[in-house]
UniProtKB/TrEMBL annotation:
Gene Ontology cellular component list: plasma membrane
Enzyme class, broadest EC rank: transferase
Organism: Geodermatophilus tzadiensis
Gene Ontology MF annotations: phosphorelay sensor kinase activity
Name of the molecule in the record: histidine kinase
Keywords, in A-Z order: Kinase, Phosphoprotein, Transferase, Two-component regulatory system
Main location: membrane
Subcellular location: Cell membrane
SUPFAM superfamilies from the UniProt entry: ATPase domain of HSP90 chaperone/DNA topoisomerase II/histidine kinase (SSF55874), Homodimeric domain of signal transducing histidine kinase (SSF47384), PYP-like sensor domain (PAS domain) (SSF55785)
Lineage, broadest ranks: Bacteria, Bacillati, Actinomycetota, Actinomycetes, Geodermatophilales
PROSITE patterns, sorted: HIS_KIN
Length: 526
């Protein structure tokens, strides 16, 4: 037979037997059948709880005193308490040592209101030996309790509906509420006696839950100081345990531990205020970013049209369609055209950034691209910049290296990395460009011979509008947009871009998924 669900009783029996290891506690229904049973009596009999559940007590108890134990159960079911003592010789039964069992019966009630009988039994041979030292142990407990630095209260409740009341408080709790330890010890928690300095409804509810055997035994509440101020505390309760009052009556006790949380609440308020301030600052920053993006987009659009006209007219002049130019005029117009192209690229970068900030996507082609050929074309585009600074490009292009993506976008990525390398490298320096396969991917690396990038700056080089300290000190041209657009384009190709720095300069590496067999070559004859 399976016992009905009695979680509260089960927890209580577990707590009792944990607190008093030599105590056996059994619960019986109206038919004198075992519902729960915990403790050493089972092992003395060579039984387990499963062996007795659902069986009548007269069938399980030894025949020599089965009738007397059954009478105890009857008394408890009738609402009376009763006790009895039996001497048992287990040598012939299980070979266990003999015992003198003191059995107490008390009435109990099931969750549905049905009467139950609660029996506890202890081998008083050992209990009486323990009782001999009880006075000394009690004195030690009281000394430790009274002098503990943690505020504590010992609560007790007798059998029946009586509310739990404080039977002892230590000096730390008395100091916390501005009282002396012997002031009104019988405070009534059931009435939530805040005026008495102990607790409001939070603590009363905590005690009630503990007495019901629940496990959520902590609460944040308030104590009232003798001067009328409220003290915030965190309270925790021990599980309830059976105990004996000084007058010999049985009762249930538990200990409340309280912790002053005044400083914690002050810290929490400060953190909450700081977090609210941070949120306000973040919202303000977000609005500024939106305004900046709108402004950049508007200005870029306004600049794009006149720049188109300027470049168109420069092309006409440089082609000689408006008349022959002398060498000085051609040189000056070529310089204007070069700077105008740089300004055009800046405008396009600003427009792209504004487009991305507004949630837009950059449209990319999706075709097979020989990245080595793209890298070679990008190197050709930047060749003039390198030549003007007396720099040398050292290429290592192991083509073809096929990837899937947008040739124009990838061209821009490599050109931007080469242009940056040229800016930071000294005049006459060397810029290295490599491209080739690497474990299912294609790697493009651009290495400069500049001063490198500080370790603290490396995580930010791909942030929008970010410029390194070296770029600012040397007044190098740029807006801090190029590398952020490089990162976005590479990510759109399902690739990665990273930056490393050392004593010989910085290296930017782009890694893209390789295409084993380009689509346009898949059907070609071998």
């Amino acid at each position: 037979m399976t016992a009905p669900a009695l979680p509260g009783w089960s927890a209580l029996l577990d707590a009792l037997t944990r607190q008093v290891p030599d105590l056996t506690v059994c619960l019986f229904d109206a038919g004198h059948r075992f519902l729960l049973c915990r403790g050493p009596w089972l092992s003395r009999r060579g039984l387990t709880e499963a062996d007795v559940l659902g069986r009548p007590v007269g069938e399980v108890a030894l025949s020599s005193f089965a009738r007397d134990v059954d009478a105890l159960v009857t008394a408890a079911l009738e609402g009376r308490t009763a006790t009895a003592e039996f001497a048992v010789d287990y040598a012939a039964v299980t070979g266990a040592p003999g015992a003198v069992w003191e059995i107490s019966a008390a009435p109990a009630t099931a969750p549905d209101g049905a009467p139950l009988a609660l029996l506890t039994c202890r081998d008083v041979v050992r209990v009486r030996a323990i009782d001999a030292a009880r006075s000394t142990s009690e004195r030690r407990f009281r000394t430790a309790f009274d002098t503990a630095p943690t505020p504590m209260a010992l609560l007790a409740t007798a059998a029946g509906p009586a509310p739990a009341a404080v039977s002892r408080v230590n000096a730390a709790l008395a100091r916390l509420v501005g009282r002396t330890p012997d002031t009104r010890l019988e405070w009534d928690l059931a009435r939530a006696a805040v005026a008495d300095g102990l607790a409001g409804g939070g603590l009363a509810g905590l005690v009630e839950r503990a007495l019901r055997g629940e496990t959520d035994l902590a609460v944040d509440t308030w104590l009232q100081h003798a001067d009328g101020t409220l003290v915030p505390v965190s309270a925790a309760s021990s599980p309830p345990v059976p105990a004996t009052a000084p007058d010999g009556t049985e009762r249930t006790e538990l200990v409340l531990l309280l912790r002053d949380t005044t400083s914690e609440l002050a810290t929490h308020r400060a953190l909450t205020e700081a977090l609210a301030g941070e949120r306000r600052a973040a919202e303000h920053q977000r609005r500024l970013e939106t305004l900046r993006g709108d402004f950049v987009a508007a200005v870029s659009h306004e600049l794009r049209t006149p720049m188109t006209g300027i470049l168109g007219n420069l092309e006409v002049l440089l082609d000689g369609d408006a008349g022959a130019l002398n060498p000085m005029q051609a040189l000056m117009l070529a310089t204007v055209e070069r700077e105008a192209q740089r300004l055009r690229r800046l405008i396009e970068d600003l427009l792209t950034t504004a487009h991305l900030d507004s949630g837009g996507l950059v449209v990319l082609d999706d075709t097979d691209v020989d990245l080595a050929a793209v890298a070679a074309a990008a190197a050709q585009e930047v060749a003039g910049q390198l030549t003007r600074r007396g720099q040398r490009l050292v290429p290592d292009l192991a083509g073809p290296a096929w990837v899937r993506g947008d040739a124009g976008g990838l061209h821009g990525v490599i050109a931007e990395l080469l242009s940056n390398a040229a800016k930071v490298s000294p005049e006459g320096g060397v810029v290295r460009l490599s491209c080739g396969p690497d474990d299912g991917a294609v790697l493009v690396a651009v290495a400069d011979c500049g001063p490198g990038i500080a370790e603290t700056e490396l995580p930010h080089v791909f942030d929008r509008f970010y410029r390194t300290a070296h770029a600012g000190e040397q007044a190098l041209p740029g807006t801090g947009l190029g590398l952020s657009l490089v990162a976005h384009t590479v990510a759109a190709h399902r690739g990665t871009v990273s930056a490393e720095s050392g004593p010989d300069g910085a290296v930017f590496t782009v890694r893209l998924p390789a295409v084993p067999t380009p689509t346009h070559l898949a059907g070609s004859p071998a």
